Amino acid sequence: LLTESQRDRIDVVLVSPRNPLNIGAVARAMANFGFSHLTVAAPYAPNWREARSAIGAPDLLLNAKDTPSLADAVAESTFIAGTGTLTHRKPDQPVISLPNLAPILARQLVNNGRIALVFGSEKHGLTREDLSHCHALIQIPTDDRQPSMNLGQAVAVCLYEVASRTSLNDDTTPPACLTIQEPARPAPRTTSAMLDLLAGVIEQTMAAAAYSPRGMQPANQHDLRVLLRRLAPSALDARRMLGLFRRILWRLDSSHKRPAERPK
Amino acid sequence: LLTESQRDRIDVVLVSPRNPLNIGAVARAMANFGFSHLTVAAPYAPNWREARSAIGAPDLLLNAKDTPSLADAVAESTFIAGTGTLTHRKPDQPVISLPNLAPILARQLVNNGRIALVFGSEKHGLTREDLSHCHALIQIPTDDRQPSMNLGQAVAVCLYEVASRTSLNDDTTPPACLTIQEPARPAPRTTSAMLDLLAGVIEQTMAAAAYSPRGMQPANQHDLRVLLRRLAPSALDARRMLGLFRRILWRLDSSHKRPAERPK
Asked: Fewer Cβ close by (within 10 Å): the C or N end of chain A?
């Protein structure tokens, strides 16, 4: 079972939830399974903190974080897992079936990892854009004929699995296809904010280098975010890459501004 | 994973649910995990079949069974598991932690077993009387500080566990304390209705034999139901016991009516 310190490093993030009663139900399920960090990104209704459905968890709702975007919500996280079903799309991220999640999360919690479990809105779940902030997609194994779950129930099922199965002492080794972001030597983990910073500098570099037509930039931006999460650089590696691209960018910009210094 | 035939032999039973929205949420979770047999015992509100929360599952709600009591709801079942937490009481039944349930259910499904998963009302969960109809209590491992779950979320968590973990091919042997009602040779399973019939005849026999004061009869009734489920007689054994007690009862009654024939 999870220790207090491990639970303390797992955030539940809701993206644009619409119904305050569902947000309250999420808070209740979190309290049921011993989790306390809720973040609501870009909420739809303003009055969600008063949801009566948060039975036994009004404080959790009052202390929840409220961020303008998913990027802000997961900025401090080192491993971000979106949730959903696979009916309508083929995601860019590795897919983990919920019953296989425990050993993966346990490894991500080592070395002060901080995990975000991200849930989409009731209307359409996580978008492709939302998923580009995620390292993996957790698939809840629902029936093909009725895959869409109620938000509060989806959160309850995921937290039950995480709370009752995750264990650092779990010596079951997951299949090779499921081992993601696992450095041979433990290295400091990279926050999402750091990856976003790196992606931003790389994008500027691409633009400065006229890497691709302006029309392609949103697609590149998406692919880049997905790529960085797939690569999963350590914090040190990310800082190195950032230094490199800043240097390149500075050179590109200055060469642009001072054509005399452009290399021949 | 469960086969269609196995899913078809698992009933979800709600005892006196109060809020139709919760009943609808239960139906939705059942559809999500591929279950279709819902029974509502002694419902509180009359209009529950129209619950709007049964998204993707209106037919399931329309086809649900409606019984006056829990005994009627589980009459055809051969293994009945109540659900709840253990905060306030020590149950008479064996307790199974939800994460350990799968191999037990798999064995109960062999040989045409029919399983009922029973959930209590939102107000107070299953009563001691309700539990006396159960062979075991499934404990959802919730946090001690906030053990009480929303009904729809509790059902979702249990069905997720059953649907994604139960497998007849699962060769993990449960710990000895968890192996209940497992005959060495497979014998036809006993329905709850048969056990109730047997209990009724035994009670009459006890009364006819003036076994205990009238004031003790409710307590005896409860203990007897619990005892029969703990013993878990096969259908054949139950029929034998029934025959025996009917015979004893007939003798007691006739000896009472015809004092001349009473043995000296």
From this structure: C
